[in-house]
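Subject: mismatched residue count in predicted assembly?

I count 1067 residues in my input, but I want to confirm that the predicted structure covers every chain. Input:
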Amino acid sequence: MKFMKFILKKSVKKISALVILCCVFSVSCNKILNKDPETSLDGKQVYRNVFDADAAVLGVYGKFVKLAKQYVVLNELRADLMEVTDNADKDLREVNTHSTTQTNPYADPKAFYSLINDCNDVLKNFNIMLKDNKFKLSEYQQRYSDIGCIRSWLYLQLGIQYGTVPYVTDALENINAVRDTSNYPLLPFKQLLDSLITFTTALPYQLPYAPSSSLITTVDNTTTNSFFIEKNGLLGDLNLWRGNYTTAATYYRALMEGSGYFLPPATDRFYNNFKVKYAEVATNSDLSVGYIRYKENDINSIVDNNSQGWRSMFARGKDDLWNTEMIWVLPFSSNFSPVDPFIELFSNNGGKYLVKPSKQAMDNWNSQVQTNKFPYDARGGMTWRTINGQPVIMKYLYNYLSEGTLLPISILQKNGQWFLNRAAAVHLHFAEAANRDGWKKLAYAFVNKGISNTFDTAGATDVTNLENTLSYPAPYNFDARNGEVPRYRSDWYRNAGIRGRAALVSTLATDSLSTIDMENSIINEGALELAYEGYRWSDLLRIALRRDDPSFIADKVYNKLLKDGNPAAATVRAKLMNREYYLPFKW
Amino acid sequence: MCKKRYSLCLLLLIAAGYIVGCNKKWDNHNAITDPSISNNLYQAIKKNDNLTKFSDLLVKSGYDKIIAASKSYTVWAPTNLALASLDPAIVNDSAKLKAFVGNHIANLTYPTGGVDQRVPMLNGKYNLFEGSKFDSANIVSANNYAINGVYHVIDKFIPRRDNCWEFVNNTTDYPLFKTALTNLNYTFFDSTKATQIATDRLTGNPVWDSTNAIFIRNSFLDKVQNISDESNEYTLIVLTDGAFTHEYNKLSPWFATNNPDSTMSLASYSLIKDLAIKGSYTAAQLPDTLLSSFGVKIPIDKSKIIASYKTSNGYVHVMSQVDFNLTDKFPPIIIQGENPTSFATTDRGFYTYYREGTNPNTGLVFYDILMQNYGYSNYYIKYILNAIPAMRYNASWVAINDVQKTPLWTQRLAIGNLQDTTLPAQIVAYKNYNEVALGKFEVLSYRSKFSLYVIGPSGSSTTGGNNSISLDYIKLTPAF
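Triage response: the counts match. Full output below for your records.
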C-alpha cells in the first residue's frame, strides 16, 4: 500500500509535471502557430496607407504586362502588316486567317476580365480607404484615376477585338460571374464607348503622377515614369472612336502641349516633348531618319544605331531624348517575371521566330521616296531587317540583339520593352480628328513637314502672319513661328511632322486631297511609322466603322494574304466584307 | 482448401492443353506461303528457264554473289533470245562484262508503276526507267519478287554507253574539237588525298607525298558544264574539223596576242564554251536556237547535223556548221559605277556617295556613285576589267547629275591609262538619265586585265559642286 502510494505520488508528480510542461508549450505555441504567412497577405494587411495603395497600383501594372503578347498578336497579325512564318503554330495561323477556334488562347478574353476584376477590386478598396481616411484626397484621386483609366483601356481593347462585351464594374469573387448576362448584359461597341467616356471623363485627375509622388521611383532598376497610362491620350482615343472629333483633338492637344506636364516653359523639354521635333543634322542626336551631315546622298552614311536617329527610340535608355517621344512604355527584364514574350515571337536567334513582316508592309516602305531621292522609307529598314536570310521584325529586339552583330548579347538575358503609346501615334490621331473636323491642312501639316513648313511662304523673312494657325479655333490654333526679324521662337517652332522627321518627301499637296484621301494618307503613315506596335488593326477597324466601308479593311487583309500566297485570302476577304470583324466572345 | 487446390490444377491443365493445341497453328501463321520469295534474286533468276544466259553472265562477272546478298536490288534481266546477239568480245573481257552486267542491276527495289526516273546502276551509269520500258527495252515480265528485291525480264540488253565526256575522249573523228577540249586539262593536287611526310622547317608548311594525290582535271568541266557527271543530262555539240576551223577563224582576230599558243587557246575556249548545255535534246527535239550557259545564242541548222549519239548522260550531236553570230558572242560590257576598283587617293571617302534612286525614264531602281567637292584636281575613279577581247568599242555611260543645274561639271573616260585622251570630256547635263555616247576606241590586243578611268574636272575646289564625278554605269559595245 505504501508502495502503491509512492508510485501514485510519483506518477501524479510526473503527470502534473507533464501537464505543466504542456501548458507552457501550448502558451508559447500560440505565438508560433498564429504567425502571419510571409508570402501572402490577409485582408487586414492591405489598403492600410498610401504605400499599400501604391503596391496595389504596381500590382495591377505587373499583371497588365502579361497581356503584351496577346495585344500585339491580335492587333497586328489580324491586320495587314504582319505574317506568320513557317514556324507558327495553329493558333497564330488561325489569328492570321480570322478563323480562331474556341481553344485559341489569343482569342480568349479571360485574361482581360481577370485584370478588369482586379481593377474593380482596387477601385472599391480605394473608395473604402478614402472613407476611412487612410490616405489624402489628392493621393486617392491620382491612384483612382490611374486604375480607372487602365480599366477603360482594357474595355476599349475588348470592344475593338470582340465588339459586344459585358461591362462589369463590380468586384467579383469569381470572374465567371461575368458570363451572367442577367447581371451584366452584353453592350454593343458604341454603347460601351459611351459608358467608358462617361466614366473616364468623370475621373478626378487627368495628368501623370506628380514628380513628387511616391509612385515616381525606381523599381527593379527602372524609373517608373512612363510606366503609367496617359489619361489624356486614352480620353482622346475613346472620343476619336466615338466620332467626337473636337473633344478628341482637345485631349490630344493637352497631351502634346504638355501644359501641366511639369515641363518648364521655354526649355528644351518644353519645346521637344511630344512635339515630334526636327532633326539635329550636325550631331544626329535626335529621333529622326538622318544621314551623316554633308553625306546625305550616301546610302552607307545613314544613322542607324542604338543611340542616334529614329531607330534609337526603340533601343535607348530613358534619357531626355527618349522622354520627348515615349509616353507609355513598360519594360521586360531578365531579372523579373514575366519573360519578354516578343523575343520568342520575333527573333530567329534565341526566339522561335513565329511572325514576320508581310510582303505588303515591305512593299509599302519600298514605295516611298526620301528627300535625298532614295526610293524607300528608311524606317522600314529599321523596323525589320534580314538576319540569316529571314526577314525579322526588329522594333522589340534592339535591347536583346547586339548592335553590331545582331546576335543575342546574352541568349538568356531577355530584355525588352512594350511600346504602348508615343508622340507619333498621338500626332497621327490628332491629325485624324482634325481632318474629320474640317482642318485638312493642319492634318496635312502634322503628317508631312510640320506646322511651320506647311503654313509658310517661301522667301518670307517676317513670319508674324505665317507659320501659325492662330486664326483657327481651339484646339487647332498652333503657333510654330520661327523667325529672326522680328524674332520668334514659338511653342511649336521645332515641330517637323511625321514624314519630315522620317526624311521623306511629302504626300500629294493638301489642296488636291479630299477628306477621305487625307484620312487614307494618315492611316498609311501609321503603317509606316507605327508598324507592329499594336495600332494597325484598331486604325483599320476605326476607319471601316466610321465609313461603314468593310472593303477598307477587307482589301488590305486580302492583299496581305494574297501577296504571301495564303490560300485563305478570298475566304477572309468575304468574311470581312460581311462585317465579321470581331472575335467570337467565348469564355 | 482441398477443393481450391483441385480447381487450380484444372486451370493449369487447360492452359497447357491450349498451348499444345495452338502450337501448329502458331507455326503456320507466319510460314512462307509465296514460293517466289523463298529465293534470293540470283536463285530466282537461275530458276527462270528464260534467263539461263543472263544467269551464266551473272556468275561469270561475279554479280551472282552480290545479288544474293542481304541488301535489296533490282535486276533488269535480258531474255536468252535477247542475249543471243551479244558480242562475244564483251563476254570474253572481264572488265567489259562487269560493266555490261552492272548496267542491268541497281541498288534498292524499283517495282514498275513508280515515277519515271533515271536509276543509278551498279556500274556508275544511269538508265531511264519509265512505265513499262527500261531504256529502250520493253519489260516482258514485271515485278518478280525475291527475298532481296525484284527482277524484271526485258526483251533487249542495254549496252554500257560512254558519257559525253568519254565520247569526246574516245573518238578519233574530230581531232580539232577534241584537242581544244583536252588542252584544257590541268593537273590538280588534292592535299586531302596526300600523305604528309614532313614539315618544312623554315615555313612550317607540310611536305606531301603526292603519289596518290595528283589528278587530271579539265577547266571546261569546271567552268562550262561538267559533262562527265552521270547524274545529270547534257547536250554537247561537237564540231567537225571543217566547222571548227571556220568558226575558229572568225574568232581568233579578237584574241590577238603576241603568243600564238595563247591566241589559240583563248579563241578555242571562246568557241567551245558555248557548245555544251544542260538538259538532253535528241536531234528531233533541238530548237533552232539554244542558249549557252553564258547566255550566247547557238544557231542550230538541223540539216548540218551529221551524226547524233546517245550517251549515258545525254546526247552528242556532230555538226558540220554552227554559224555563231559575233554580236551574240561578244555582248556589250557593262561596268557598274558603284563598284570601283580604286580611287586617285584613298582619303576622299567622305566626299564619295553611293546612292540608290529611281530612273524616271525606265522606272527601274539604279545604284550609282557620286563625288562632290572633294578638292582634288583630275581626281579619278579606276575600274579594272577582266578578259577584254581585241576590238573596237563604242563607249557610252549613264552619269546622273540630279544635284546641280550650275555649275555643270565635265568628266571624261580614259582608256588603259590616265594620260589617254582618245575620248573627249563630257559635260554632265542636269537630270539626264539616258546613255551618253562617248566615242570609239580600239583595243589592239586581247587583255586579261584592262583599266578604265573616270576622271573629274581639273582644279581643286571644295565648294559649289565644281569638283564632281558621277557614274551609274559604263557600256562598251563591240563595233565589228
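Chain A touches chain B through 13 residues (CB under 8 Å). Marking this ticket as 'not a bug'.
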